[in-house]
């Protein structure tokens, strides 16, 4: 299962989130789900993007994000979520056991959103 982890500021639009996904590059595989922190999972921008893409949103509890080792690091994210990258941690948590990053964190041109891709077995109950 390939999952796109998404991190974003409260004022981000669906277009900003889509731009972050596009920044992963034209060869990036299509995700099967979008994942983010539980506190962000109901954001209108994310729900709009998910509906446009026909993808489910995986809500990752804070307890699953905290301590996840990520290839990139943001001090602001570390302080708030206990991990180096919300996008990478959410993707890893939602992709399931043994998940690995296949496209590291990128930022939308406007700076309002980040995205990363992880691949794992996605077994229910093990993701988020």
UniProtKB/TrEMBL annotation:
CobE/GbiG C-terminal domain location: 2-118
Look up the record and give one Gene Ontology term from the biological process aspect: methylation
Signal sequence coordinates? 1-18
Q: Which SUPFAM superfamilies match?
A: CobE/GbiG C-terminal domain-like (SSF159664)
Q: State the Gene Ontology terms under molecular function.
A: methyltransferase activity
Short name of any one Pfam family annotated for the protein:
CbiG_C
Q: Which keywords annotate this record? A: Methyltransferase, Signal, Transferase
* Protein name listed in UniProt: Precorrin methylase
What organism is recorded for this protein? Aliigemmobacter aestuarii
